[in-house]
Design brief:
This protein is mainly α. The chain has eight helices and no strands. The chain is globular and about 40 Å long. The longest helix has 28 residues, at 24-51. α2 (24-51) crosses α3 (56-67), α2 (24-51) packs across α8 and α4 (89-98) crosses α5 (105-119).
Length: 171
């Protein structure tokens, strides 16, 4: 399914994912937009994949599913999920607090404080206000991809610990 992502336009790689759109104009517009977003973010996606021992195809597939490669400040309508890999507030704070990536270090202490406040029962609205810089960092596509790769790696490792020998085509 994801064979040839590096060599072919991403819309070819995702095959029928766009076929449900009505009207050729909408389909063509979405294809061009998706391709442009992929082109913009492919280098950071590939770098994050390499750094986390994942395939670029796996990382690209998740980014496509989560944000159509839009990144930046792409936000889900029904949750706090934001960015290329659509992290919600609490998961973002947890992953940044765990990260050893150089890009995450400026936010690590704030992430740890966010989690401590969460554990103390500080309301989400207060945490959103207090930790704006940390939560806004999800809009940094490079950091979001690095943390996304870290999160995916942790998930695959957890599956392997349960006895799933090849949880995906990620490796």
């Amino acid at each position: 399914f994801w064979q040839g992502v590096k060599d072919a336009p991403i819309v070819q790689a995702v095959g029928g994912a766009l076929s449900g759109l009505t009207g050729e104009t909408a389909k063509e517009k979405t294809s061009k937009s998706t391709q442009a977003n992929y082109n913009k973010n492919s280098t950071i996606i590939n770098d994050a994949a390499k750094r986390n021992g994942l395939t670029p195809q796996f990382m690209a597939g998740v980014a496509y599913t989560e944000s159509s490669f839009k990144g930046d400040s792409t936000k889900a309508n029904s949750s706090t999920a934001t960015g290329l890999y659509q992290f919600v507030d609490d998961t973002w704070a947890d992953q940044v607090a765990r990260s050893n990536a150089p890009e995450a270090q400026p936010y690590k202490a704030q992430a740890q404080a966010y989690l401590a406040d969460k554990n103390k029962g500080v309301p989400r609205s207060k945490r959103k206000e207090t930790y704006k810089a940390l939560l806004s960092a999800r809009s940094n596509d490079q950091l979001n991809a690095v943390i996304g790769g870290q999160y995916l790696r942790q998930g695959l490792d957890a599956l392997k610990k349960t006895g799933v020998s090849n949880p995906s085509m990620a490796e």
